[in-house]
Amino acid sequence: MKKILHVIAQQPGKTGSGIFAKNILHQADKRGYNQTLIAGVPFYENKKSYCLPEGVCFEPVIFESGQLPFLLWE
Q1: Strands, DSSP E only, in the chain?
Q2: How far apart are CA 69 and CA 56, in angstroms?
Q3: Is residue 23 part of a domain?
Q4: Is there a domain that residue 68 lies in?
Q5: Which residue range(s) make up the domain with 58?
Q6: Is 57 exposed, middle or buried (0-12, 13-18, 19+ CB in 10 A)?
Q7: Beta strands across the sheet bearing 3-8
Q8: Counted domains in the chain
Q9: pLDDT at site 12
């Protein structure tokens, strides 16, 4: 099976790049690709709020947290 790793600094579906990435995820899912997404998100966002395809493995990089205490958009 073909695999795709997507890495973006924006929130999926929340910025221009994030919307583009989310659409790519959905199109690749329709074609049966195994996918993982690494994306920068604020700590207060729920992973379910991004409406990603069911089979996508989502590995968020949490900003505005104790480990990364700065805003994503500074």
Answers
A1: 3-8, 34-42, 57-63
A2: 27
A3: yes
A4: no
A5: 3-63
A6: exposed
A7: 3-8, 34-42, 57-63
A8: 1
A9: 86
